[in-house]
Each structure stands twice: as structure tokens, then as C-alpha cells.
Amino acid sequence: NIFLLLQVGAIVAGKPDHGIFGYAELTKCLTQGPHLGVHRGDVAVCTAAVSDFKVKNYNEEKIKKEGLEDFNLELEKNIDILSFIASQNINRPRLVIGFAAETKNIIENAQKKIQNKHCDWIVANNVADKSIGFNSDYNEIFLISKNKEVEKFNKTTKSEIAKKLSNKILHALIQ
Fold this sequence. Notes:
By secondary structure, the chain is an alpha/beta fold. It is built from three helices and nine strands, in the order βββββαβαβββα. The strands form three sheets. Strands 3-6-7-8-9 form a five-stranded mixed β-sheet. A hairpin with a 4-residue loop joins β8 and β9 (150-157). The radius of gyration is 18 Å and the shape is globular. The mean pLDDT is 81.
């Protein structure tokens, strides 16, 4: 049996019919306490970074503009969830997959990302091409493995790409 855990942040299209569904409001919640849970799964698919940066001095209360001549927000790096999951020793899923939305040098940049983040696969696409990716029902991707194998999925519907990726994941898990 393959175990499904869907761990999500603030944007949720709907709950899955099978497996466990986890919701975390803050990035740090995805790496702490009861939300972590990914160690129970066979595969982790990290489709997008929550945010690379967060406000350093977060305040629960509204910041009033009265008395402020100028105002600066100080940012700090946020937790990199893909790197966190892929770097686990004991609780690491068998297969960790990340995504790379690139505008140039797609394969080269994705290969760097796979090394830096210690994941098994990267799904890379060209977001500079307006006919695919964001705001389109179509995509064209490259599936890149940590062994530097590259497989191109030609332009097709996102649903078809999802089916092909799901089959690749299942095949990798049953080997």
C-alpha cells in the first residue's frame, strides 16, 4: 500500500477522498508539531514555495500610520520546506519531488536546485512561455532526476501531465 498525505498551506481547492489531509496556516507549522506528518508518507511533492521571505518582526496588531514619516518592513528568510523534508534522515519520504518555475536555462537551473535542495526529482517548466504554465490549461515540463536524467513531457493539458507524473511516481515506489 502507498500512503497519501496531503499537507497544504492557505490555498486549498478541496480535500482528497483518500489519505490524510493536513492544513497549516504558517510556514513554520509545516515543519513543526502535529503538522509535520510527512514522515509517514511514501512521497512528498512540493509544488511551490510558500514564500521565500517573511516579515522579521511580525505584529498581531494593525500598524497605525499616524506618527510614521516612513516605514520599512524588515524581511528574513523563511523555512525552505522542500529542503527541510528532503534533508530528513529518519523521517524522509522515499521519494521527494520539487518544482522549478524557470524563465531561462531551465534544465541547468533545475539541476542546481535538485542538488541544493537534496530532492530526488524536480519538475521544471518555462514560465516565460505564456502559452503554458500559469493561467493556462496546458503545460510542458521536464522531469529531472538526481542522477541527471531528463525526460521531456511535451505540451499537453495539465491533467494529462498529472496522470503521467502520477504513473511515474507509482512506478518508482513499487520498484
